[in-house]
Amino acid sequence: MLSVLRNRTYRHLLAAQIVALTGTGLATVALGLLAFELAGDAAGLVLGTAMTIKMVAYVTVAPLAAAFAERLDRRKMLVVLDLIRAAVALCLPFVTEVWQVYVLIFVLQSASAGFTPAFQATIPDVLTDEREYTRALSLSRMAYELESLLSPVFAAALLLLVSFNSLFWGTALGFVASALLVVSVALPSPKPSKPRGIYERTTRGIRIYSNTPRLRGLLALSWSAAALSSMVIVNTVVIVRSDLGLSESAVAAALAGFGGGSMLAAFILPRMLDRIEDRKVMLAGALLCCTTMAGAAAIFATTPLSLGLLIVMWALAGFGYSTTLTPSGRLLTRSAHPEDRPAVFAAQFTLSHCCWLVLYPLAGGLMTLFGATTALSFMAAMSFLGIIGAVTLWPRSDLHSVIHDHPDLPRDHPHMSGPPPHAHPVIIDDLHPRIPREP
């Protein structure tokens, strides 16, 4: 897997991702402490509102950012967005009112909504070999999980030496380091074949996404995975502290089980995907998510739950979650031409966060009103609906050549070159606004 690090450009991009994630992890801890300082017992409401603002920014800004991304130099855009994020982090220690937190969080997450899809779309342009790109996806997933495990520990160590406001300086340093690493390499910046209006550029990613069967299936699987992750992220602390009556360290242990399972899946996925098609692997991962939640609901309803058993279940859930979503970059890359990839990655970013925007409050509300058994059962049902949708929307043979015609094109058009019948795997573009039906 580490052989992909021989590529200097990718090595710098991975390092940029790691330092930016570390900075983000420090900001997560510092933001919670800042909310408590400003709002006291109402800190939970402040953080909940901040998370909602984050999701709204992701859902609304990503398509707009993608519309401008195709006209901008990719490297300059990423550097500017990193510097905006650093500037916001530097402002956070000086806020004195809750509304200021909300404004800064919106600016910060809007910059992230522009940065993340464009960054993700750059990797397949750098690593054009699919085997290498698959390994890069696994390394990226492992970086995310390591950040979630290590950043709180790192923040706790720093808090022994400095005040929580100083953590925001570490966040800014992470974003500046990310910008320096991005600017140190040359990045491809594919341009569209013809100029397009702002409306077409804004909606292009969603239109390509919605007209591609495998991506409709990916959205269904994103819903399935979001049902699981919402339950884990929102309710683990309630299950451990209230239902099991254990300490805060037990919460960390349970979440570490989820992260460990996810990292294990990321480690073995490259070899698995070399032998087994993406559809089977991703559906198997979603099914593991669903059955794990259903099994957890059954255990809650019938037998006392222990921390060890919860860690095992969360590890299985993390394995299924990573198996479901890590290959998604391969599907997005196959489904768009290089100049359209930022728009398609932005569409996935927007639509997947729409799933979380619905399922986060649903998971929390069900847990509060009806308890763990009902919440787990309902979210397992939501996950199963996603699996049914994926099986229905994503055909088994979606990479085969499709025999079709272009009656609006002259016979000497470059696209029509070659002997009849005209056939090739179809990517949604100006010549193929939807998947043609074979005669």
Q: Into how many domains do the coordinates divide?
A: 2
In what order do the strands lie side by side in the largest sheet? 1-2
Global Rg: 22 Å
The main sheet comes to: 2 strands, antiparallel
Q: What would you call the shape?
A: globular
Distance between the termini: 43 Å
Strand residues, percent = under 5%
Order of helices and strands: HHHHHHHHHHHHHHEE
Mean pLDDT: 86
The CATH C-level name of the largest domain is: Mainly Alpha
Query: Residue share in helices?
Result: over 70%
Q: How many helical stretches?
A: 14
Secondary structure tally: strands: 2
CATH topology of the largest domain: Growth Hormone, Chain: A
Q: Can you identify the CATH superfamily of the largest domain?
A: MFS general substrate transporter like domains
Can you put this structure into words, describing what you see?
Helices cover 75% and strands 1% of the residues. The mean pLDDT is 86. Helix 5 runs antiparallel to helix 9 (248-275), helix 8 packs antiparallel against helix 11 (307-325) and helix 10 (278-302) runs antiparallel to helix 11. The longest helix has 32 residues, at 8-39. The protein has two domains: 1-189, Growth Hormone, Chain: A (Up-down Bundle), CATH 1.20.1250.20; 204-395 and 431-439, MFS general substrate transporter like domains (Growth Hormone, Chain: A, Up-down Bundle), CATH 1.20.1250.20. The protein has a two-stranded antiparallel sheet with strand order 1-2. The two termini are 43 Å apart. By secondary structure, the chain is mostly helical. The chain is globular and about 75 Å long.
